[in-house]
Each structure stands twice: as C-alpha cells, then as structure tokens.
Amino acid sequence: MLLKGRSYPIILLVLDALLRRLPKNHPKLPILQGDYNKRMAGYWGEKRLDEFLDGVPNFPFYILRDLSLNVRGVLFQIDTLILTPFFVLILESKNIAGNLLFDTSFNQLIRTSDSKEEAFDDPILQSQNQRRNLINWFKDQKIPLFPIETLVVMSNSSAVVKSTSGNEILSKKVIPVKKVLFRIEQLTDLYQKELFSYKELRKIAKQLIKNHQPKKIDVLKKYKIEQAEIIPGVQCPNCSVMPMIYKRGKWLCTTCETESKDAHLKAVDDFLLLVNNTITNKAFRDFLLLPSMNIASKLLIKMGFQSSGGKKSREYYK
C-alpha cells in the first residue's frame, strides 16, 4: 500500500528555470545541463521502479517514496522505503546505461561508454549509509529496531553490471528492476518473525512521513552564479524569447506576436525557485520588467497570493 508518493523533484524545476534564464554563452551551462540530464535520468529510473511495485494489486506492505529525514543534524534521502511487519527494505534506484564496474576497493561505480570512463559514487555504499542513518533515526525516535535490508535497483535494461571482487556480493545487493518483487518474496521467506502488527506499522509509517523534510538547495550558491546573471522578463510561451511586454491587459511577444494573459505565471515561479520564496511588488516589477506598481499589485492579487507585512514592505507568497 502506498502511503507516500513521489513528487516531481524541485531541483529539476530549479535547474530548468536556470537553464532558460542564463545567457546562451554562459560558462556554467554545460555543467547545469549535465546535472539536469543526470537528475532527470534518476527520476525516470525511480518512476520505473514505482511502476513495478504499483503493478502488484493489493501489495501487502507499506511503501514510502522520496523520504528525506533529519538525523542528528544530517539530512539523508531514501528513494523508496518498504515497511513490512518482518523487516524494512531500502531501495536505491540507479538509471545508468553502459558497462558498469563496481569497484569495491575504492567504493566507486565506473561506467564505460563509447570508450569513455566515468566515475560515480558507489550506490552500495550509499544504501549502507542510508541504513546506518535510518537505524540512528529509529533509535532517536525510540522505535524498536527492524532487520533492515538494502538493495540497489538498476532500472536501465541496457546496463552491463560487473564487480572487481566477483559477483557473489554484487548479486545480493544489486539487482535489475524486474527482479525487485522476486527479491522481496525471498526476504519475506527469510524473515518469518512478525515484529509489528499492521496497525503499529502504520503508526511508524505516519511518524516517518510527519518527519519528512524536503532538502532545500540554494542553486545559485551551489553553482556560484550571481543573481545579476539571471535574465529577467516574461518568456514567450511560443518562441521562448524574453522579454514580452505588457499591453492592454495582455503580454505581447514582439518577435512572434504571440499574446498571453497568463505568461507571467511561469516568470513568477522562476523567481520563487531561483531568487526567493517570497516576492515584493518591487521585485515583481523588476523581474517581470513591468513599470506600473498598480498593474503589479493587480496581477499579484489576481494570482491569489497570500501576503504579510505593511504596505511598503508587503511580501507575497504561495
């Protein structure tokens, strides 16, 4: 049973906004595009895992997806957590194509594709760290410990997986996505002792969800990009040119002559993602290149934003 779903990652929205609002010759664009592609691939890998679990009618265990917890001041994230009365299973999804070598000596995953080698963090070690953090979280919450198993799920069917230390450890900890349900059945056969009732288990699941803390990323700080480098203006929904101009209650693109009444909505979302989670009338005007304070006020009110503060210092937020 699904108790916590997987939402579209905020970081992908942030990177998309940044890619659209930097000059085409900006030196950070290749890095940003590469990170966007990797994160998007990861997201689709997680979705593929979700599809396999969702394909089982009346799945008897509790599923929590995209769970982020704070343990002793450190945030850690779990792709998929399965709670059963007998054991807990952490699933770490990886959507990587090519020839993959798990180097157990240096804790690296080395991908060879088109004669090019690329190193990734070892997902087996990642899942072990998640296990340790979850054990500490259970201890801090006074929850009796479960047996906690970990699996790395390779969701890309074209991956060829090998290990420097033989395949025995690898076959136990790394599996293709199509074997997930089979491995869950094996673990269910292995762990026969019922530690919690389903009622108690649901209470633990709700406690985990209540303590979920989405990780916040200051993307400009992370990539060392100044706010002044971001291109302001409303982007044309048809040809993507910026800026559109506001005229007679509509946004007009001077390049393709597209008209829109709500093109500013995406621009405001971009501001909230990249600059600040609140916006003032002045910031609204500056970012949308809108000269009129009154028009800015009307648009902000029409968007249904909540507000706080006095007239001169009022901030709007979703």
From TrEMBL:
Residues 41-157 form the NERD domain. PROSITE patterns: NERD. This is NERD domain-containing protein. It comes from the Bacteria.
